């Protein structure tokens, strides 16, 4: 071995070892997750189990592969305060873009988009001292992937309704998550079927990317880079009892169905 190689080995042997003083001497069978694989000897981290869910099996042999382990990640993206700040910022941006709210009509996409639109209306009233009408948009009959989303049974249609005429108005569509863009396109068609607005703008709480249509939001609460194996879940006080946005990763070997990746009007995908 060359002198340089011997020096590298000595440095590695003398390097301080990572210790975990807070870990119990005996780990519970399901308390921690140790990544398995051919290079397991290089793993130097023990990850708390509450960061990962859905572990398959309790014992991993030295020859186990990482593909044999099923992990579902759950990451908090926005808490109640973050959601509130995002909506306040979007409200100010709507005022700035439209030079006030005199001609603005909000349109919430069922289900959670409706509650977000109502919250935005409250903030716009606080900022401008003026009431902003809030309509409700049901995109069910305007989606181009309805067959894939509901392969059996008739779709539940709740209707699109505006409290004022939208002719010549600026209609701001409001939804929780922007994903493929198919729901946004369907929402635009639903709006146009009720009149001819001067403009249609799009406001979303979360933009997760992966667009399939050339649609870009005008107002975004948070941009979240994601993979197609992940889902963004939006919980709101009005529906779920709390405000929380989380990112969850699908387990290995459990691919998402069309309904999961295209739309979830009760969980937050668009």
UniProtKB/TrEMBL annotation:
PANTHER family named in the record: BIFUNCTIONAL PROTEIN PYRR (PTHR11608)
Organism: Brockia lithotrophica
Domain Phosphoribosyltransferase positions: 77-219
Subunit note: Homodimer and homohexamer; in equilibrium.
UniProt short sequence motif PRPP-binding, positions renumbered to this chain: 171-183
Protein name, UniProt field: Bifunctional protein PyrR
Taxon lineage: Bacteria, Bacillati, Bacillota, Bacilli, Bacillales
Example GO biological process: DNA-templated transcription termination
Encoding gene per record: pyrR
Chain's role: Also displays a weak uracil phosphoribosyltransferase activity which is not physiologically significant. Regulates transcriptional attenuation of the pyrimidine nucleotide (pyr) operon by binding in a uridine-dependent manner to specific sites on pyr mRNA. This disrupts an antiterminator hairpin in the RNA and favors formation of a downstream transcription terminator, leading to a reduced expression of downstream genes.
Sequence similarity: Belongs to the purine/pyrimidine phosphoribosyltransferase family. PyrR subfamily.
InterPro entries, per database record: PRTase-like, PRTase_dom, PyrR, PyrR_bifunctional
Sorted UniProt keywords: Glycosyltransferase, RNA-binding, Transcription, Transcription regulation, Transcription termination, Transferase
E.C. number(s) listed in UniProt: 2.4.2.9
Catalysed reaction, written as an equation: UMP + diphosphate = 5-phospho-alpha-D-ribose 1-diphosphate + uracil
Annotated spans, Disordered: 1-23
GO molecular function, one term: uracil phosphoribosyltransferase activity
Tree of life domain: Bacteria
């Amino acid at each position: 071995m060359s002198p340089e190689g011997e020096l590298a080995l000595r440095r590695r042997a003398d390097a301080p070892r990572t210790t975990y003083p807070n870990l119990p001497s005996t780990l519970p069978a399901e308390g921690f997750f140790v990544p398995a694989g051919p290079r397991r000897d290089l793993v130097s981290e023990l990850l708390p189990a509450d960061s990962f869910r859905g572990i398959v099996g309790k014992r991993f042999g030295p020859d186990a592969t990482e593909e044999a382990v099923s992990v579902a990640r759950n990451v908090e993206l926005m808490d109640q305060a973050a959601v509130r700040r995002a909506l306040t910022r979007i409200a100010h941006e709507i005022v700035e873009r439209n030079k006030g709210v005199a001609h603005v009509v909000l349109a919430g996409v069922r289900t959670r988009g409706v509650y977000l639109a109502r919250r935005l209306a409250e903030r716009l009233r606080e900022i401008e001292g003026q009431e902003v009408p809030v309509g409700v948009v049901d995109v069910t009959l305007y989606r181009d992937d309805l067959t894939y989303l509901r392969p059996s049974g008739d779709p539940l249609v709740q209707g699109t309704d505006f409290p004022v005429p939208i002719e010549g108005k600026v209609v701001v569509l409001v939804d929780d998550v922007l994903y493929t863009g198919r729901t946004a396109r369907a929402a635009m068609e639903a709006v146009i079927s009720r009149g001819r607005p001067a403009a249609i703008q799009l406001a979303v709480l979360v933009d997760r990317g992966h667009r399939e249509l050339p649609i870009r939001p005008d107002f975004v609460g948070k941009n979240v880079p994601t993979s197609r194996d992940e889902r963004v879940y939006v919980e709101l006080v009005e529906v779920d009892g709390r405000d929380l946005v989380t990112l969850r990763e699908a387990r290995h070997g459990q691919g998402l169905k069309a309904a999961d990746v295209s739309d979830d009007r009760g969980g937050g995908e668009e």
